[in-house]
Design brief:
The protein has four helices and twelve strands; from the N terminus they run H-E-E-E-E-H-H-H-E-E-E-E-E-E-E-E. The chain has 357 residues and is α+β, with helices and mostly antiparallel strands. It has four domains: 1-48; 53-63 and 253-356, Elongation Factor Tu (Ef-tu), domain 3 (Beta Barrel); 69-96 and 222-246, RNA polymerase II/Efflux pump adaptor protein, barrel-sandwich hybrid domain (OB fold (Dihydrolipoamide Acetyltransferase, E2P), Beta Barrel), CATH 2.40.50.100; 98-216. The chain is elongated, with a radius of gyration of 48 Å.
Amino acid sequence: MSTTSLRAGEAAAPSVQKQKYDMRRLRLILLIVVPVIAIVVGLYFYLTGGRYQSTENAYAKADMVTISPDVPGRIVKVMVTQNQMVKASDPLFVIDPDPYRIAVERDQAMLDKARSGVEAMKAQYRSAVAQLGLAQNNVDFYQHEYERQTALVKREFASAQAVDAARHNLDVSVRLVDVLKESIAQIVANLGGDPNAPVEKDTSYLTALAALDNARLNLGRTMVRAPFDGIVGDKPQPGDYVAPGTPVVSIISTQNVWIEANFKETQLTHVVPGQDVEVVVDTYPDHTWRGHVGSIAQGTGAEFSLLPPQNATGNWVKVVQRIPVRIDLDIKEDDPIIRAGMSASVEIDTGSGKSSH
């Protein structure tokens, strides 16, 4: 054997040993490490399976109101445009205020008349009370005169005619006292039972004041304002005649926005209000909103449909129902604007997996 052959054999021996070592390592990885990793991963998914519930059947919702006027009239001015952002109490449109301004002036005149009427009755009351005092003095006087004339007749110092005249004057004065008392009672009744009460407490005055307040209220209602912050829908047109209850303009809130997620009933086993939620709106796929489960509807969507299913019929097929879940968002100032109706994907962390069964 040559020297060259010996050297080649010696070089080949370590290479073969290295290959055997690598094979043993590979076998060890395949037989031990890989199964262990697979078991750990499988165990993780087994334990956490069902913890996260997600759905793409979710849509943005917001408070929306259709505004109608409280008083009828013709629109004379519109202060907003379509899709304009408005704040609460911002003016939207104006109904012709002239008829309502005239009504205010008329009811103000009626209030002044009611005040004058009450003051006049108070004056009549004071006059009647004074006359009653005078009439009672006359009664006392004619009573004394009658008794004096009667005594003189008995002593034959006066005639019977003088006695009759004294009697007549006494009867007239007594009758006048009764009449004045009835008149005072009537005035007191018209003044609500208390002739000394302030004018502002009189029923006629209060009735006129209520009519004036109503007229002022209707005048104020000719200016229609936004009930909350939001975005205006279709705007009204000047010249349109509107009536109470007639939809004129709609506003969608920009503040109170939430997600309505329609989960399958089988997904809600461990879902309860307060659990953390991640939301991705399709319009902004790179942005994630945080939120929590606000509430869960008491009925499925089918129960609130116009024609709910009649499962008592013979043609019955079991279908997994969906139940609306309200997701309240923790919106930040720098978050993109979410508009009502946008599609979204929702994932709820229930904190419960198969280990909790």
